[in-house]
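Suppose you are handed a protein chain with no further information: no name, no annotation, nothing but its sequence. What can you learn? This example shows the usual starting point.
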Amino acid sequence: MEQQETRKENKMGVLPVGRLLFSMSLPMIISMLIQALYNVVDSMYVSQISENALTAVSLVFPMQSLMISVATGTGVGINALLSRNLGAKRFKEANHVARHAIFLAVCSFIVVAVVMFFAARPFMSIQTSNPEILEGGVTYMRICCCVSFGLFGAITLERLLTSTGLTLFTMITQTTGAVFNIIMDPVLIFGLGPFPKMGIAGAATATVMGQCIGMLLGLYFNLKKNKEISMNMKGFKPDRLLIGEIYRIAVPSIIMASIGSVMTFGFNMILMQFLNNSTAAAVFGVYFKLQSMIMMPLFGMNNGMVPIIAYNYGARHKKRIMETYKYALLASCVLMLIGIFAMWVIPDKLLALFNASENMLGIGVPALRIISLSYIFAGFCIVTGSVMQALGRAFYSMVNSITRQLVFLLPSAFLLAWLFRSTGGLPQVWYSYDIAEISSFVVTAVFFRKVYREVIAPLPD
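A reasonable first move is to predict its three-dimensional structure. Written in structure tokens, the prediction is:
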């Protein structure tokens, strides 16, 4: 039975904005912090196998990111469209979006699993000829990508909960999956108790097991606790127009995140092939794990902000849109300052978590300090890009992301590596991050000014 049209106003339209953003974001920030902690702990255990194992996992990271990009990008389209329908009191349409979310999750998994299985060995072979790194990377990538139904299911079901304001349950699903993952990592990697010693395959197996736990919990909470939408698939038929609308919003987000995978792959190629420095590639991988401890909370806050912006855009509440944006910017500044402080004050201690050798410390300490300077501008770009997506102007965020990573970051990294190749190319190559983020700041500000004039300013006060 479809929900009745007469309902009380959703909290996203009436609660004070500061308290609303806090209540919506805090559960997701906590869950994403735990997710980030899992990423760090996972690499810590892998580093105990060998530095080559750590490098293998680092080289697989772009493909993992690509897979996650498809899931989260589709989730952005679902989230924005579902929240907008709820804000406009179009409950039947909201249910239709929810059902298509399940359908698209299944389709995405099938495509990714098939493609990634056959792409694993060619992808690793392009980057390295070291047999240990090559075989470890192929094993890790095939397990993580070909058993990814838990990932796609968990992310999709979490987005449905987020769209209706039930972010506490997303915290539970993500936290439980991540904690299970952290517990099983050493058990499967080193063969504790009755479990066999699986090495790098154990790390991948623990990952997919944790994702499946999150998916099952997400399904339970949606069926039992999410009263605003229905996922009843009886009589379901795909609607090409609706799928097109979802991906009109989602594709820019998928491309933006996928561009990050291309950038990471390109950067690894510069480090591994042009500079011939596998330790630098390991440092780059470790940086991404450490960065997640700062960026994941920011993304968690964004996930809480997007449905608020989308809901109030549907309800035509200009003041609440801008208040939400300002609070999010303030929070992002605090998070970025914490990140800069940590990377400058204790970089050696952070790298020591990954069993860093003297050579790795020599490369990693300046790398963390130099790259972290880009955080000064990153917070504004990430928050503002998410606001534009929530308002249906994801194209601007996509163009900005492409410009930042493919026009500024990779070319400047290659140029710096080439100019300073006689001295090894490090640490100069790390400054490409700062160059790219400053450029992105300017482009983002120009785009948002245009979006404000076209979309926000015409709304009633």
